[in-house]
Amino acid sequence: MSSVAKAGWIALVLGAVALGLWGSRFSVYLATQVMILAIFSMGYNLLFGRSGLLSFGHGAFYALGAYGLGLFYLHVNTHPLLGIAVGVAVAAVGALIIGFFCVRHTEIYFAMLTLAFGMLIFSLIWNLRDITGGDDGLVGIGRAPIDLGVVSLPIAKGYQFYFLVLVAFLISCWVLWRLRNSAFGLVLAGLRENPQRTQFSGLDIRRWRLAAFAISGAFAGLAGALSALLENNTDPFSAHWSHSAEPILTCLIGGMHTFFGPVVGSAVFVVLREEVERFTEKWELAFGILLVIIILGFRGGIVGTLARVWHRAEG
Predict the structure, then answer these.
(1) Helix (H) / strand (E) containing 138
(2) Can you say how many angstroms the Cα of residue 44 is from the centroid of all Cα atoms in its chain?
(3) What tens digit of pLDDT does each residue of 202-242 get?
(4) Is the pTM of this model over 0.70?
């Protein structure tokens, strides 16, 4: 990692800690939303940007993580870390099962299969009212203290929960950075650029794609579990195809071929949506127009465009 990148990481962590300590309640809540969406988007970009596979069904794994945590909290145990672990595990298993069928295909067929499976999960959540609460979702998901034996850490208040999300975000960044720059990440890049040549080298491309799909689904589950804790509830629309579009947009806004692109895209997406909602009732139309302008104006995403300008200035 270059010195500039290290300085950027240090500045990001210090700024995030300062925001959690001295920021207003609303800014802390908004930053928490940004980090949760960034976890979702960075995990998704391992599949989309690194592997070249476009999924329209990742909202399903987000919902599986949220409902896994919610059902565990309401019926088994209130320990937040155990609930998050259960949510991630449920999402990862769901991604393995669904991915087994989807990775046999590529391009539009893969995208349509993920969309179909995603809407299947949405329909199941909607109709299994006795288990999932139907269209009402699960309510009453609390934020019990994290009991570590020696010490108990409260997360009930917004700024307390913010630091839990910050830790999850930083760990996610570290894990995904290592994956992206490992042999595993290089194989995924090879699958994106030339799957035939990668297959001729003796690698089972379906297994590699399935591994990327499952890991991506696990991070979606982590984001879903954290979101359920943030809002104290979850609903079926977290599995809807429209929710699956959010990580796609954030990756396009920030830059799908850059590591930090999804993080920047998540910040732009959340803050811009919040600001537009304040000024117009037809916020969805205005928000959509602004997103189109940003995506078309920054080919390669915001981070990708800035990187090209930086390299040109150096050259």
Answers:
(1) strand 138-139
(2) 6
(3) 888 899 999 999 999 999 999 999 999 999 999 999 999 98
(4) yes
Closest CA to 195 of 182, 207, 205: 205
What are the residues whose beta carbons fall under 8 Å from the beta carbon of 249, sequence distance 6 or more? 265, 269, 291, 295
Distance (Å, whole) CA 127 – CA 125: 6
Query: What is d(CA 36, CA 221) in angstroms, rounded to the nearest whole number?
Result: 11
> Is residue 245 domain-resident?
no
Q: Assess contact for 289 and 297: CB atoms under 8 A.
A: no
Question: Residue type for 106, please?
Answer: T
CA–CA separation, 197 vs 205, rounded Å? 10
The answer to whether residue 70 is domain-embedded is: yes
Using the structure block, give the residue that is written with the tokens 């000024």.
Answer: 279
Residue ranges, the chain, pLDDT below 70: 1-5, 314-315
In a domain, 278, yes or no: no
* Three-state secondary-structure class, residue 214: helix
DSSP-derived letter for residue 56 is S
